[in-house]
Amino acid sequence: ASAPRPSRQAQPAPQQQPEEVIQRYMEVVVGVPDEDCIICMDQLSNPSTYELPAKEDRCPVIEPDTVGKFIKCGHTLHMLCMLAMYNNGTKDGSLQCPSCKTIYGEKTGTQPKGKMEIYSISQSLPGHPDCGTIQIIYSIPPGIQGPEHPNPGQPYTCRGFPRFCFLPDNAKGRKVLELLKVAWMRRLIFTVGTSNTTGEPDTVVWNGIHHKTEMMSNLSGHGYPDPNYLDNVLSELASQGITEDCLRAHS
Ligand SMILES: [Zn+2]
Ligand SMILES: [Zn+2]
Question: pTM (2 decimals)?
Fold first, then answer.
C-alpha cells in the first residue's frame, strides 16, 4: 500500500438568512397558476398557512400569498412553504425542488467529523482483473450530536469503524473516488441515525451512497463482482447533487 492521502473534513458553511436562500433560487410569480402547492397541497391561489416564528429582524419578508418559481426547473409553490421546509432541514444554503428533486446550490449533510484515507493496492478485485484496487478507509470517532442531528447534546456511537471500502483502480473507479471525496467534503457519506441492521439509535450510519466493503469475498452482498456497481453509485451520487460538473468547478 502507498502512503495515505487524508482528505480534510469540510467546515460548515457560514449561516445565511433562510429568506435569502429562498430568494436566490426562486423568483416571484406574478400571475398565479391554477395549480396546487406540492408542499401543503392547497391551491396556490390560497395563501400558505405555515407560520414562522416571530422574528424582529426578518428581512426580506416572504408573505403567505407569495408564489415562487424555481429558476431552473420552473416548478411553482408557496415561497413560505418552501421556507418552512428549508427551516426544518439542515439549513445549508441549498434547496431541493420537492417536485423534481433538482438541487440548487451545494447540498450538504450531517456527517460527523472524521477522516477519509485513500490507498492503492496492487491486487485486483473479482470482476476487474485488468487493474489494481483503490482502498478507502473511513474513520469516525464517537462524539456528541450537534444541532443538525436527531438528538442534539446526546452522544453518538460509531460501530464497525474504521470502515474499509474498495473500488477498481480504473478510469471509472477513479472518477467515483473523486466524486466520493466531494461527497465526504459535503458531509454526505455518513449521517447520525438508527441502524437498519441492528436498530441501534444515535449511531453513525451510511447515508444512501453504497460502498463495497468486501474486497475478495461477497458474503454480505457488498462485495465484488458487481458489474453494475460503479453506475449505481454514480447515480446515487448524482441524486445528492454530485456529478462530474463538481470536479470541473473545483479544478
Ligand atoms: Zn404551500
Ligand atoms: Zn422542480
Answer: 0.82
